Amino acid sequence: MIENKSKYSQLIKGEAKRLGFLSCGISKAGFLEAEAPRLEKWLKNNSHGEMQYMENHFDKRLDPTKLVEGSRSVISLLLNYYPEETQKENTFKLSKYAYGTDYHFIIKDKLKSLLHFIQDEIGEVEGRAFVDSAPVLDKAWAAKSGLGWIGKHSNLLTQQVGSFYFIAELIIDLELEYDGITSDHCGTCTKCIDACPTNAITEPYVVDGSKCISYFTIELKENIPTDYKGQFEDWMFGCDICQDVCPWNKFSKPHNEPLFNPHPELLAMTKKDWEEITEDTFKKVFQKSAVKRTKFAGLTRNIKFIKD
Fold this sequence. Notes:
CATH class of the largest domain: Alpha Beta
Number of strands: 10
Radius of gyration: 20 Å
Largest sheet: 4 strands, antiparallel
CATH topology of the largest domain: NADH Oxidase
Helix content: 25-40%
Distance between the termini: 65 Å
Order of helices and strands: HEHHHEEHEHEEEHEEHEHHHH
Shape: globular
Strand order of the largest sheet: 1-2-7-4
Number of domains: 2
């Protein structure tokens, strides 16, 4: 049986690689003991701001066996999104993950293919695919599966490739061979903490989500508090500052997923182009992008807040 677990794990990892995933790690489904007090404290401190959904399904968030009936294994997967080309200097910026087609669709398709492969090759296996749209602590599972460590900016970090990747999970009812965790390699570095313009990283490894530029420009539906005027450093959708300054990201290599390539007009847009953006241009440039989440009104609100 142990031989089978090992064989199945290798099969799954091989197929994940073939599907274009950067890496794949597997851990035993169960209660995330170390995460429980951290999550509780984070919520108590109101670090989630208006993101009320973070309060929901507390038990399921910490234990996938309560989320997926009969689950035995959490398969964590990373998909690179680091772009070959970035926006020009001196323009309003968007987070690199939002350059191309919305990752939810791309990754969901790959996860479904992986699940079908498991069912075809191994037999009756049930499971569910997750791409940050359900109560799953994806970074915690990826770290538990040995795919990296959670850095001081609270993102998953990997020595070979940095942190510009999406994390997704397949939670299945099959027992597999499990990976061990990796060690923390942040050392004494505080570059991410020092660089955050809104002081959202309140202490190493703790981010107050309600102070993060990504939160203000994507999640917050009301007006952005005026106290933060002049602190956004031209970020109009999301923010990559803590990742851009991280020394491990000098190892980032461009992705090879054509659907993540930006709309041709996007990279050339100047501040003036963004200030004059029409709803038609917005629809054309962001037709299938995650930027649609903030809607035209949200993006123009953000631009106005930065430039006024």
